[in-house]
Design goal:
The complex is a heterodimer of chains A (about 300) and B (about 375). With about 300 residues, chain A is mostly helical. Chain A has helices at about 1-55, 80-110, 115-130, 130-145, 155-180, 180-190, 195-205, 205-220, 225-230, 250-260, 265-295. Chain A is globular and about 65 Å long. The model of chain A has no long low-confidence stretch (mean pLDDT about 90). Chain B starts with a helix and ends with a helix. Chain B has two domains: about 10-140 and about 320-375, D-Maltodextrin-Binding Protein, domain 2 (3-Layer(aba) Sandwich), CATH 3.40.190; about 145-285, Periplasmic binding protein-like II (D-Maltodextrin-Binding Protein, domain 2), CATH 3.40.190. Classes of the chains: A mainly alpha (about 300), B alpha/beta (about 375).
Chain lengths: ~300, ~375
């Protein structure tokens, strides 16, 4: 009786192991496949953009000149005007959105209790779901419709701020939650005021995460197109004034050349502009990570 | 140790700021130099262009984009202190932005409407936003080509009726007897006809359907509009329909002349009853010359004779206008617009436009245009 029971166990056990091994293998393979499927479009985009656009990036004028006087059929000129515009707008957007976003996150994590905190958190959730075109139309309605102002670079920044704030708030919030409570308690126990604890202990500990969040938000707004099309018409000239006149940006430059698909010169410019935008985001990303590494708390 | 980390907390924001500030700081501005080499030294437009400094912005018709781009480049070479921006977002968008005071002039393929559309009378709204009547100033005429892709068929003649039947889907193959009757001796393939139309709201569509409606009223019964009412497959913008037709044997579309030639498409001759007429600057110019003024005074809105039967006239054209305020509140804007339009309308510039696929304005209209521009204040 007992012998037969053990023999049954001996017979079934290896079977079950094999089944498990196979399931494990199947899961591994499907995960690897999913990864490959996810990477294909990314690699495809990078390869296409690089092969089509890399050549112009090495032209002597690309990083220096604007497109003034360059018709769509002509080659030459550069993307300086659009690079300037994109950097200025992204910088000003970050300047407005980062303090608001980080302070909101600090409030939510460190102080927020009760109704107000729930309301703020809820609003941030709603803001996360706002499509960029809605943010753009909202700013257009207020800026142009209500106040009767011109479409200028600063209006674009306002729309981008709406898109960047929720990204910064959410990532900063998550990072602050990760800071061990023991650090706060230790600091408070030494008689350090709460605000000093936050500024000197909590924020530095979470710094690299916050920087990542800011960069994610920045990458999002730099590639954003809808607000630019509605609020920031393209111009071929250098422009640095956020409050008057048109301001060119890389996405609107891509859009401009996209409408000239019959022209080899315009198409090449379009790819090169796209590559420039990717490179710009990449460089900012790397620089940000470097800063975060240098500045983070060493344990 | 801790003190430096505190400051590091502010670094991300500063980094971005620094990046943008250095960007505007090293503003190595030699904008004209790259473009100037093309025409800079040769253009000595003696039209005594007075050069105001400053920026004027325009927006609208994409049909006139290539023309105005040429004009802007030449103008900025002559007047290096002046900047003109033009965004080809479409006639409808241009007029809307003009009324909303977002641009100083609008480009449009049709004059401001004097009857209400969707409760808005464009002409009145524009006048209200200007504080003075808005004027339609014709600047270039663009022939619309019926562009086809039939390997081996170099000349093809159509008339309004057959064209209307092709574009409303009644005629479906290229060797249809109706087409063969107009092309005696040509060997037409049995390829199926594939019509491509503009999916966006377009002044080109409006003018093309105006022609079909006026010259073949029995076949093309739909009212002309910016939205396509015929058959076929929609593509965005002139570049879209032209490249689609170029990629599809048997394809046919309507587009500005320059797009047809750029995409190496065949351009159909039009037989209005007095023999086949090929599309040339001259034959299209004759159609412009036959146009009559329907606006009053310096408002030069033109009414085109699409149903002409005259010999040697290519009837499918569109006239693109610059829509301006007759009096600008801002004196600098007025000077900028006047100076640029005067340059654009000058015979030297107009004669250059033919190579870009446009028909220059006839002399009689040019004189009126010059007078109207001079009257802007």
């Amino acid at each position: 009786m007992s012998v037969s029971t053990t023999s049954r166990v001996v017979v079934t056990f290896p079977d079950r192991t094999r089944a498990r091994t196979q399931r494990d293998r199947a899961a591994r393979v499907s995960m690897a496949l999913a990864f490959v499927v996810a990477v294909i479009p990314l690699a495809w985009i990078l390869v296409t953009v690089t092969t089509q656009g890399a050549q112009l990036l090495f032209s002597s004028t690309w990083w220096v000149n604007s497109q003034r006087g360059i018709n769509s059929t002509m080659v030459g000129g550069g993307a300086r005007h659009a690079i300037n515009g994109t950097l200025i707008q992204a910088g000003v957007t970050a300047l407005i959105a980062v303090p608001i976003g980080v302070l909101t996150a600090v409030y939510l994590v460190e102080f927020g209790r009760g109704r107000l905190a729930r309301a703020v958190s809820f609003m941030v959730d709603i803001l996360t779901g706002v499509p960029s075109i809605v943010a753009a139309l909202f700013v257009y309605a207020v800026w142009v419709g209500t106040f009767g102002f011109q479409r200028v670079g600063f209006a674009v920044c306002l729309a981008l701020v709406l898109l960047m704030i929720p990204v910064v708030v959410r990532t900063t919030e998550e990072m602050l939650k990760l800071v061990p409570n023991e650090l706060r308690e230790a600091s408070l126990a030494l008689g350090v005021p709460r605000w000093t604890t936050i500024v000197r202990v909590v924020l530095p500990t979470a710094l690299s995460g916050i920087v990542t969040g800011v960069l994610l938000g920045l990458a999002r707004v730099m590639g954003e197109t809808a607000p630019l099309l509605i609020l920031g018409p393209y111009t071929k000239n250098l422009a640095t004034d956020l409050f008057s006149g048109l301001m060119p940006t890389l996405p609107t430059m891509i859009n401009q050349d996209r409408s000239e698909l019959g022209q080899a010169a315009a198409v090449e410019r379009m790819w090169a502009t796209a590559l420039t935008l990717i490179v710009l985001v990449l460089v900012l990303n790397l620089a940000g990570r470097l800063v975060a590494r240098l500045g983070s708390v060493s344990r | 140790m801790k003190r430096t980390t505190v400051q590091a907390a502010l670094v991300p924001a500063c980094l971005v700021l620094a990046a943008s500030l250095t960007a505007c700081g090293s503003d190595a501005n030699s904008p004209a130099s790259s473009g100037a080499k093309a025409t800079g030294s040769t253009t000595t437009n003696g039209s005594s262009t007075d050069c105001p400094t400053g920026t004027i912005n325009g927006e609208g018709s994409s049909a006139q984009k290539n023309a105005i781009e040429l004009a802007i480049t030449a103008y900025q070479d002559t007047c290096s202190g002046a900047t003109v921006n033009y965004n080809p977002t479409g006639s409808g968008a241009g007029i809307k932005q003009f009324i909303a005071k977002q641009v100083d002039f609008a480009g449009s393929d049709s004059a401001l409407k004097t009857v209400a559309v969707d409760g808005v009378v464009e002409a009145d709204a524009a006048a209200k936003s200007c504080g003075s009547p808005a004027w339609d100033i014709p600047m270039v005429a663009g022939p619309i080509a019926i562009a086809y892709n039939l390997p081996g068929v170099t000349t093809l003649t159509l008339n309004a009726e057959v064209a209307a039947k092709i574009f409303n889907g009644t005629i479906t193959t290229w060797n249809d007897p109706a087409i063969a009757a107009l092309n005696a001796g040509a060997s037409l393939p049995a390829t199926a006809i594939k019509v491509f139309f503009r999916s966006d709201e377009s002044g080109t569509t409006e003018n093309f359907t105006k022609y079909l409606h006026a010259a073949a009223p029995a076949v093309w019964t739909a009212d002309p509009s910016k939205k396509w009412t015929g058959k076929g497959e929609g593509k965005e913008k002139s570049a879209g329909v032209a490249s689609a037709a170029a990629a599809t044997p048997g394809g046919v579309t309507y587009a500005e002349w320059s797009y047809a030639t750029q995409n190496k498409l065949g351009v159909a001759q039009i037989d209005s009853g007095a023999g086949a007429v090929a599309l040339t600057g001259e034959s299209a110019g004759k159609a412009v010359a036959a146009a009559s003024q329907k606006g009053q005074g310096n408002d030069l809105a033109l009414s085109l004779k699409y149903d002409t039967k005259e010999a040697g006239v290519y009837p499918i054209i569109l006239v693109t206008y610059e829509i301006v305020c007759s009096r600008y509140a801002d004196k600098a804007k007025a000077n900028g617009v006047k100076s640029f339009l005067k340059f654009f309308a000058s015979p030297e510039v107009q004669s250059k436009l033919e190579s870009a696929g446009y028909a220059p304005l006839p002399a009689a209209v040019q004189a009126k245009v010059a007078a109207a521009i001079a009257a802007i204040s």
